[in-house]
Automatic annotation (TrEMBL):
GO molecular function: NAD binding; NADP binding; oxidoreductase activity
Statement: the UniProt record of this protein carries the keyword Nucleus: no
Keyword Metal-binding annotated: no
Name assigned to this protein: 2-hydroxy-3-oxopropionate reductase
Length: 284
């Protein structure tokens, strides 16, 4: 397929690489950083003059941008929206707000462009290995059309409802992960006070009702203050903000509190892995 790709960052570059390696034609353009562009061009991607040119040449356009502001900047541009070829599909993979996604899809629908709302989970390792989970919102027939592209990057593709529900599932997942990270740090603080052996504790918790993916996989990182490159604190802060904003008016005390902790932790160290929020509980 002819695939346009916008967003060649920590996630987008390894995903686009896989799409190209699978034999699809890839159309890209420069934003600020030219190095991913040059790498993909050497591997056979076509470099276009601007976003409208990328969009015009693609059957499927994938975008994985930082956040709502960038989604609105790109898809709010009438010239870009009008550039879509007849029958083309936008696969919007940014972790953004459901409400912004719905607005963008409505504007594109006026142009006759179908949209799949398709954020991902699985991090940069999942992007490189093609093992991401896709949370797809939109028409199942549109999902079926773009599956050959999604199959290059995902091990699991879940259809979760209409437009906006992909972003909603992602926000709910991030809310849980953010809260679980803080809960794990507090549990580890108590474990240290009680002189527990971590290996023993993890084995038992993994088979008990307090089990979580975060406690199973991130406890070592929290304790070692590893904070090696992973899912950045500032991205978790952004995702919790989405959850809290979408839930305005609901009692979400844990998400609201967690957001404050991530804001604090991200203030000086936003590029550290989100396990670094544990330092606020355990000390540096
Ligand atoms: P990065 O900041 O690494 O990459 C963002 C990319 O978008 C860059 O290539 C940037 O280009 C480009 N970009 C920014 N603004 C524009 C614009 N206006 N027009 C075109 N391109 C633009 O982010 P990630 O790849 O880490 O994350 C992308 C999304 O995926 C986020 O919503 C994130 O929450 C989500 N996500 C991230 C995960 C992770 O582990 N990192 C895991 C799962 C989801 P340039 O560099 O030139 O400015």
């Amino acid at each position: 397929m002819r695939v346009g790709w916008l967003g060649l960052g920590a996630m987008g570059l390894p995903m686009a690489r896989r799409v190209l390696q699978a034999g699809h034609e890839l159309f890209i353009t420069a934003h600020r950083n030219r190095s991913p562009l040059e790498e993909l061009a050497r591997a056979g991607a076509t470099v276009c003059d601007n976003v409208a040119d990328v969009v015009a040449r693609a059957e499927v356009v994938c975008s994985i941008l930082p956040a709502d502001a960038e989604m609105e900047a790109v898809w709010g541009d009438t010239k870009v929206r009008q550039a879509f070829a007849p029958g083309a599909v936008l696969v919007e993979m940014t972790s953004g707000s459901p409400s912004v996604m719905k607005r963008i899809a409505a504007a594109l629908a006026q142009q006759g462009v179908a949209v799949l709302d398709a954020p991902v989970s699985g991090g940069t390792a999942g992007a490189a290995g093609g093992t991401l989970t896709v949370m797809a919102g939109g028409d199942p027939a549109v999902l079926a059309r773009v599956r050959p592209v999604l199959d290059c990057v995902a091990a699991q593709i879940h259809h979760v409802g209409g437009i906006g529900s992909g972003k909603a599932v992602k926000a709910i997942n991030q809310m849980l992960a953010g809260i679980h990270m803080l809960a794990a740090a507090e549990a580890l603080s108590l474990a240290q006070r009680c002189g527990m052996d971590l290996a023993v504790l993890q084995r038992v918790i993994a088979a008990s009702s307090g089990q979580s993916w975060i406690f199973d996989h991130k406890a070592q990182d929290i304790l070692k203050r590893a904070a090696k490159p992973g899912f950045r604190l500032r991205l978790m802060k952004k995702d919790l903000q989405i959850a809290v904003d979408e839930g305005r008016g609901l009692p979400l005390p844990l998400a609201t509190l967690a957001l404050q902790w991530y804001e604090l932790a991200a203030r000086d160290a936003g590029d550290l892995d989100f396990s670094a929020v544990g330092r606020l509980v355990l000390g540096d």
